[in-house]
## 1
Amino acid sequence: MAQHTDPTHSVFIVSDGTGITAETLAHSILSQFDVRFKKIRLPFVDTTEKAQEVAQAINKSAGNDPHRPIVFSSLAKTEFLEIVRASNALHFDLIQTFVPPLEEELGMKAARAMGLSHKSADSAEYGNRMDAINFSLAHDDGQSHKNLANADVILVGVSRSGKTPTSLYLAMQYGIRAANYPLIPEDFERDSLPSALTPHKDKLFGLSINPERLAAIRNERLPNSKYAALENCKQEVQRAEAMMQREGIRWLSSTTKSIEEIATAIMQELKLEKRVG
Amino acid sequence: MAQHTDPTHSVFIVSDGTGITAETLAHSILSQFDVRFKKIRLPFVDTTEKAQEVAQAINKSAGNDPHRPIVFSSLAKTEFLEIVRASNALHFDLIQTFVPPLEEELGMKAARAMGLSHKSADSAEYGNRMDAINFSLAHDDGQSHKNLANADVILVGVSRSGKTPTSLYLAMQYGIRAANYPLIPEDFERDSLPSALTPHKDKLFGLSINPERLAAIRNERLPNSKYAALENCKQEVQRAEAMMQREGIRWLSSTTKSIEEIATAIMQELKLEKRVG
């Protein structure tokens, strides 16, 4: 990656809402540069006064820092954007960059209204999201067999292969009802899937993991246990993979993947449609 | 909002990674238009072959739809971007839009490498995230008093005011160790905070909710119960708000807010620093 040794650049994330979109974008763009950035998120900038305070903060940073600040903003109202843009920085505004060409393409004016992108608490999508979160919590780690038929996906895998965070992410971000069910030594002895799962084979998706990595994770929880021993991890992983192979369960290795990458791959494999956003 | 009656526009979200950044941006921009969009997310486009397939899919849509497709892409490698951009659509690429002016500002070349923006499973930040998720699950709904001193924030409020999804979101997105603790009728009878919470008053943050909304949510879970009765909800909310007021606990109303908005407001109020991203 490109090298750089200068002191930190200040990056302001400015939004009339949460700033999550602007921050996600900034993070993605800035990760392409091997530079230390100091990010300052300023959400809910929804009055003239707050816009003026933001401009002052940026100018102050411009006066003190060795580098001009960088601003990623998402400000729907032109009046607030103009105030912020008058400050001394390299400015990128999401609305201003993408909305005008879209207005031209669609032959219509954008609303330029604040707060349109998040689902508020009384929308149907919000209800889907809450239902999915409650479902995933109730069906974490094989806690309940009730209503497994209502699951969109049932994740299976050995303990600590990443099932719980992936289930919660699928529920939170996409309103997917994701249950998860551990594969434990008893299942390998019996050499068959837990019986609660057999009626739902089409919804199963497996997570596996590199045994060395698994041993490291388990050792943090239960140091020097049989559970965490490398030899035991190797066996569990091997038998879990053999079982998934034999049963025709699709699976992936979570070893080098982020939760987002695992969740996205599962949605793609199972052709799941999200229920929010 | 601007009105439009034409048939749906196809929107392709194309990425060499998960496509979450491009999708978040697209959602935010498109929500400014009162048009029905049909979104197609195409993640993990990381080979020449996959880029060609994407271009074909876009061209097919361009041939069938009444409107030209719209493409939001995030493709770090110029060779894949060029293949996709040759298709018949209105193209927006995040890298191409923002990276060149940043290269000039920073006086250096971007890495233009794929997969830089997500934390993989062996980074310290990933560990922070997992720890926070496990902490929030273990401290959901007042389940455990153990290690409350390690919490970054302890959410309090009546049952169904939004504590659980907010705690999980804070953990998942920001690596914040968020516990949550219900305020129940017994606390109001005694007219004091649960004793487990008094040593941690500086970490408390309250969620309240409009009683009518609360009654509606509770009625979905336990129809026609005392728990869900409007009169009971009114009393609980009033007494919870009085208690928070008296104890000097900061709080907000979750009634019209998304989980993202609640979480962002809490981070801002308590000046919490995220441990991931």
## 2
Amino acid sequence: MNEFELIARLSRGLPGNSTVVTGCGDDCAVLDFGHPENLFLFKTDAVVEGVHFTREMAPEKIGRKALARCLSDIAAMAGTPAAALITLGLPEDFNAGFIEKIYDGLNALARKHQVAVVGGETTANPGRIFISVAVLGTVARGKQVLRSGARPGDAIFVTGELGGSISEKHLEFEPRIAEAQWLARHFSIHAMADLSDGLAGDLRHILRSSGVGAEILTTALPVSRAAKLQARKNPAKSPVAAALTDGEDFELLFTVAGGDAVKLLDAWKKQFPKLKLSCIGKIAAGAGIVIRDKSGPHSLDAHGYLHFA
Amino acid sequence: MNEFELIARLSRGLPGNSTVVTGCGDDCAVLDFGHPENLFLFKTDAVVEGVHFTREMAPEKIGRKALARCLSDIAAMAGTPAAALITLGLPEDFNAGFIEKIYDGLNALARKHQVAVVGGETTANPGRIFISVAVLGTVARGKQVLRSGARPGDAIFVTGELGGSISEKHLEFEPRIAEAQWLARHFSIHAMADLSDGLAGDLRHILRSSGVGAEILTTALPVSRAAKLQARKNPAKSPVAAALTDGEDFELLFTVAGGDAVKLLDAWKKQFPKLKLSCIGKIAAGAGIVIRDKSGPHSLDAHGYLHFA
């Protein structure tokens, strides 16, 4: 059994109760505590030494990333993060200055987004630093944006540029909190997710949750400069493949009714002139992702390879 | 710098915001989201293979313990746990059946206490299993019991029996949720904590937070059978020392006004006839812990050794 099969098994039959609006399977859990205005968003994530970072990286950026990943998930629900707890696993030979700088980076991002860091727990974790972050946030009742609302005919959008995050962006990305809130306030966003597993993977989550398919135009993909530079060094992966499959972009992926697309693009340019917004395709009936390039439509397999459809 | 000095440093100057009622330094963080009736309790904790458990232990009990530790902290605030998220670090050679049984044990305890398990995250953690649990709970506005409310003249109580938890109880303890809620509903509990670091350590947390001292009577300490059995094998640690310093008892430690003590004991016996409640001493002006035995008063040092006062 691999990790994904295990997760699927562990996700079945989890205990619930009357607070659960949306449990396992979206960017955050959504909980209803009878607050007159708000629902609550609950999320944990972890970064692990040797898996997500090394001691050669700037510790401030490691701490920043640990929190930013969770904030990106709160953004993906159109929510507002409020409080965070840090669980820190420390190896025997931990360097206190390094750990303090991890916290400095995390705290600086928390301050920027008015997130309170309200404690946590420290434990031994022989061999490596393990940083788990739990975040509690809020969203106005009924305004949470799930993965499950995409409909045939919807336009598909992504913020920013995609691919090549590993060179730099994965340590420096901005959680799109303000942008997501603005979107949910001014438009009827049908479905949204943040891009952590790569566009193709995260779009598949939306498609499966919504019971629909999608067609993506390669010419519309906002390929990052980093992805193009990497493709020069490693021609086996094209810039388009990088934009489709590289993880940790932490941009927003969302859908709106096709009729709203032009109005949304115009309003976005006025509101966020420095952040690119791209319409990359449309939601279709059916299932799976079709990629359309100059040579015609192709199906995209789980490894990011294109096949003639 | 050791771990405790590091934690003290990391705990200073953490980012706050207007939701924070009680941040770092109590059993849970207490947050105010403007809910008309409730405040929110937020807590994380972790258990790590080779530190808190081994693969030789029953996996159901490992999962149970991972959640129970957090529930014990919610109990220590007189709160009600509502939802949990699990962050799971997995080594390369993980045994899927073992992990599923960890979840079985965790889920069973969650069901018992009507806690929803609303997802989590899985990551690689080369070398060992790492289980971090985040719990969100509620407490009626103003009914949260902190560590900081102990006053001179208070009677000090503990539930259950103390010491020797390592033989068995650390994997099987019952979070005292119903008991703590009953206490807070019927009495004015001045201060409360759960016993995770050992009676002396956790009492010190209360004393420091409250700016008071305490006198404990050794004859009143409810020493567990496990602690007595261990003392026979290892005469270097007396049963009283075990009750004072062994970790992971996960009982409630609390104080009430001296005048409430007898009434509380009587009411407790009717309400919880199967669970021992012991008055072990009293809060005094000053600082630190004085232990009184047949030979007179002694001061207790940080290592659990007694010195003539």
